[in-house]
From TrEMBL:
Residues 39-534 form the Amino acid permease/ SLC12A domain. GO terms for biological process: cell volume homeostasis; chloride ion homeostasis; potassium ion homeostasis. This is Zgc:153039. It is a multi-pass membrane protein. Its main location: membrane. It holds the Pfam family AA_permease. Gene3D superfamilies: Amino acid/polyamine transporter I (1.20.1740.10). It comes from the Eukaryota. It comes from Dicentrarchus labrax. GO terms for molecular function: potassium:chloride symporter activity. The keyword Chloroplast does not apply. The chain crosses the membrane at residues 34-57, 69-96, 117-140, 160-182, 189-210, 264-283, 304-327, 347-372, 393-410, 416-441, 453-475, 481-503.
């Protein structure tokens, strides 16, 4: 008699590309139809029962006793329930699609973690299917392949190849069911569910209806019948309900397992028992076939877990009350011997094993289909995307069946049993981790309707799964974790960026916010000072050298690239800066620097820089140093064009320019137009954007705000790799130097080597020397000594200061024949002479120079003269930083 299911229970919508009109219209006509009972409860019940309920209940009670058996089930179900709570939380936090646990993990933890766990979950289901197929074949051969006492022939031939043939037949049966689709699978599992429930009913009835009897133990239970070693009894008793029997089964009595010959312990018995409880994802794997996954998965899974827990514990109590210890320890199939009709239990074993095999096969195909749709492995899995008209991923089913067939060639049931369980436990731990990450991230959009969980339950689930993995097999557990990490790295480097959202970003945000609040500026100390730089950049195309150099002197501090765009938001339809952030962030990635980007819109460059100095950073992470490009007429050089274009050879002088214009820019920054477009808010030549008066006013503003200031000149063509690898034929024989002039060269008599600004120069030079790429550079410190004074005394004093500051540098005294007084107006000749002195003294030429930057004059009318003096001082010096420090940054204290 065929079982007729309501059509609404099993029809499945075809899968189309997400968001396509065809998919939406198809879903409206033919929604997913599997209900809670047929889509979640039945698959989960049958996966959790499998063969443990029929063949391992007696083993658990016989070895560990009733007390420890119940304790084992409590511990096992505690671990399982922690994971179930996580599954329920994730599944009720939004719409679920095909893929079950893989879909949950990948959308929560990102493609790397989700993809690696998805592959392992797929292989776990494939191996699980093969495991149950082999188990069914062993059960069939054990029943029909061994000659009966009254016959002289085998009902079924036995042997490796015959077993492989039987396994192939069972796998083909599972394949046919899964190929037809979820509706036939639902029918088949419902029929098997009825059979298993009926057999369970006969088992419970048998405890009460069958009178006490003596059971003949199997011959394999007495392997030492030849007279050597201990002799075990050949019969045991089913006593019915007796207090003496119960008392004899309360406590543990671990002995040798007659099937393996090894002595059992609590850990080994627990591992065997736990293997039968790892089926809680069977309903989640059907998420793509359910009418309402977010509603069905929590309710169905919890129902199945509670039901199986009650059944297992009831059986433990009934077995302990009615079967003596010898029967439980020496005959694992005793339920068949005490049943009202022996074949009932055999039918139950066959049915539950077949159901578990089908459940794993269809689960594997749905996971593979979900992996293929997400394109994590490119075109490798693209065939698995194909579906039938009813939405069944038939190619995924075929691939899964083929892999199951390959596993069947191993023919070793015990070889893959531990691996399957460990893979499943790893997936459970990943689900707990996903839920924990979502909970810890405190994202506003994580608000599942299922609220009976906390981060404590997630942690307990992770710990429980990890302990069980290593308890079952430490070697396999370690290997599976290593395999998962390998897959994770592979996907991280090879897969495209996904649009699912990365939980790592939410967790980082949560932790950064917490620690920023803990970073108290009132507890700052000079011992732990580090540069936190705001570098103003007008056009990155001409500023690549300076951007990379400043990245070297930040010393793990804050580094912000600032940019001011002139404009008035009142006259603009929208914020023009929002579309520019991607280009700036791409620039940061391209240059491989660790920097933030801060853009602002203002009516002038000065006001824009004031905005950035006021608002850049958060809490204790705020810029303390402003870096500007120098204000001069140096032509800019575009460093972001394709390097291959720089080698263009063309007789037509306009040819290279025309070809450059035809090349697409790497970044969406405006092209350089000539002398009116300079770098870093300094080099604007004709003053169309920024005039000299405003430029010096920016320097004064920064010092008023207690910010250190650095002016960078001649970094247009700076190339760190070229600078740090000079040819060996150069005058310095390949040596690299960094020169420091820690005295105000405009007023050498008004400063000493131990003022705040001079020490700031020394600190920055020392920081540069601490960077890995600059460690081979030699610091040269130039000591200006007025003629007639003791050079040795000044040199020893400076050397002692460097020793106390732990700065390694070579000191070079420089005779100074003219010290202008503060009242003397500096002439151009004097500045040119100082410039020539710097050039002539520092041989070979250094990679970069650090010079003292004096304060701007109080009289704003002298700003232009001040800028002219700086220009003459640094003329043709090569890469130079003019630095003025306003805060103490160095100490000799411990």
């Amino acid at each position: 008699m065929a079982l007729k299911l309501p059509r609404a229970l099993y029809e499945v919508a075809p899968e189309q590309h997400p968001g396509s009109p065809r998919q939406r219209s198809t879903q409206q006509r033919q929604p997913k139809k599997l209900s809670i009972f047929f889509g979640v409860v039945i698959p989960t019940l049958l996966s959790m029962f499998s063969v443990v309920v029929f063949l391992r209940i007696g083993f658990v009670v016989g070895q560990s006793g009733l007390y420890q058996a119940i304790a084992m089930f409590l511990v096992a179900y505690f671990i399982i329930c922690m994971t179930v709570l996580s599954v329920c939380a994730i599944s009720t936090n939004g719409a679920l699609d095909a893929g079950g646990a893989y879909y949950m993990i990948s959308r929560a933890l990102g493609p790397e973690f989700g993809g690696s766990i998805g592959i392992m979950f797929f292989f776990a289901n494939v191996c699980g299917c093969a495991l149950f197929v082999l188990g069914l074949v062993e059960a069939i051969v054990a029943t029909f392949g061994v000659p009966e006492a009254t016959t002289a022939y085998q009902v079924l031939p036995s042997g490796y190849w015959w077993s492989l043939l039987y396994g192939t037949g069972v796998a083909l049966l599972c394949l046919l069911v899964c190929l037809v689709g979820a509706h036939i699978y639902a029918k088949a599992t419902f029929l098997i569910f009825l059979v298993v429930m009926f057999v369970l009913g006969t088992i419970f009835v048998s405890f009460f209806a069958v009178p006490p009897r003596t059971v003949v133990l199997p011959s394999s239970a007495n392997p030492t019948a030849n007279g050597t070693g201990p002799v075990f009894p050949t019969t045991a008793n089913f006593t019915g309900f007796k207090l003496d029997t119960l008392l004899g089964n309360l406590w543990a009595d671990y002995t040798v397992d007659y099937t393996t010959g090894t002595t059992m312990t609590f850990a080994t018995v627990f591992a065997v028992m736990f293997n039968g409880c790892t089926g809680i994802m069977a309903g989640s794997n059907m998420s793509g076939e359910l009418k309402n996954p977010s509603y069905s998965i929590p309710r169905g899974t919890i129902t199945a877990v509670i039901f199986t827990f009650i059944i297992y514990n009831l059986l433990c109590v009934l077995v302990a009350c009615s079967c003596d210890r010898v029967l439980l320890q020496r005959d694992y199939s005793f339920l068949r011997d005490i049943n009202i009709w022996h074949p009932f239990v055999t039918i139950g074993v066959y049915s539950s094993t077949l159901s578990a095999a089908m459940s794993n096969l269809i689960g594997a195909s749905r996971i593979l289909y979900a992996l293929a749709r997400d394109d994590l492995f490119g075109k490798v899995l693209s065939p698995a995307k194909k579906t039938s008209h009813s939405g069944n991923p038939w190619v995924s089913v075929l691939i899964s069946w083929f892999l199951v067939q390959l596993v069947l060639f191993s023919g070793k049931l015990n070889t893959i049993a531990s691996i399957v369980t460990i893979f499943f436990l790893l997936v459970y731990a990943a689900v707990d981790l996903a839920c924990l990450a979502l909970e810890w991230a405190s994202a506003p959009n994580f608000r599942p309707t299922f609220r009976y969980f906390t981060w404590h339950t997630c942690v307990l689930g992770i710990v429980g799964c990890a302990v069980m993995m290593f308890l079952i097999n430490a070697i396999y557990a370690s290997a599976s974790i290593a395999f998962m990490l390998l897959l994770l790295l592979l996907i991280h480097y090879l897969s495209p960026t996904s649009s699912w959202g990365y939980i790592s970003q939410a967790l980082i945000f949560h932790q950064v916010r917490k620690y920023l609040l803990m970073l108290d500026v009132r507890k700052d100390h000079v011992k732990f000072w580090r540069p936190q730089v705001l570098l103003m950049v007008s056009n990155p195309r001409s500023s690549v050298g300076l951007i990379t150099f400043i990245n070297d002197i930040k010393k793990s501090g804050l580094y912000v690239l600032g940019h001011v765009q002139l404009g008035d938001l009142n006259t603009l339809p929208s914020d023009p800066l929002q579309s520019q952030y991607d280009s700036w962030l791409s620039l940061v990635d391209h240059l491989n620097i660790k920097a933030f980007v801060n853009l602002t819109l203002a009516d002038s460059v000065r006001h824009g820089i004031q905005h950035l100095l006021f608002i850049s950073g958060l809490g204790g992470m705020r810029p303390n140093t402003l870096v500007l490009g120098f204000y001069d007429d140096c032509l800019p050089n575009d460093k972001l064009i394709d390097p291959s274009l720089s080698t263009i050879q063309c007789t037509d002088p306009l040819g290279p320019l025309q070809e450059l214009e035809q090349q697409p820019p790497l970044f969406h920054f405006s092209s350089l137009r000539g002398s009116s477009d300079r770098q870093d808010y300094g080099e604007f030549g004709d003053g169309k954007v920024l005039g000299p008066q405003e430029y010096v006013a920016i320097i004064a503003d920064a010092m008023k705000m207690l910010k250190n200031v650095a002016l960078a000149r001649y970094f247009n063509n700076f190339d760190r790799a070229q600078v740090l690898s000079p040819p060996s034929s150069s005058p310095g024989k390949g040596a690299v130097y960094v020169d420091v002039w820690p005295v105000n060269l405009l007023r050498p008599d008004s400063s000493s080597y131990v003022d705040t600004c001079s020490l700031f120069l020394l600190q920055l030079a020392c920081i540069l020397n601490m960077v890995r790429a600059w460690r081979k550079a030699t610091l040269r410190l130039f000591l200006c000594v007025e003629q007639g004074r003791s050079v040795r005394g000044s040199e020893e004093k400076l050397g002692q200061l460097l020793k106390e500051l732990r700065i390694k540098a070579q000191v070079y005294p420089v005779p100074w024949d003219h010290f202008p007084s503060n009242a003397t107006r500096l002439s151009d000749d004097y500045l040119s002479a100082v410039n020539k002195l710097i050039l002539d003294t520092a041989q070979p030429a250094p990679a970069v120079r650090f010079l003292y930057l004096p304060r701007p004059p109080a009289d704003t009318r002298r700003y232009t003269t001040y800028l002219h003096q700086l220009e003459l001082l640094t003329q043709d010096l090569g890469p130079t930083l003019l630095i003025h420090g306003v805060t103490p940054v160095i100490t000799t204290d411990l």
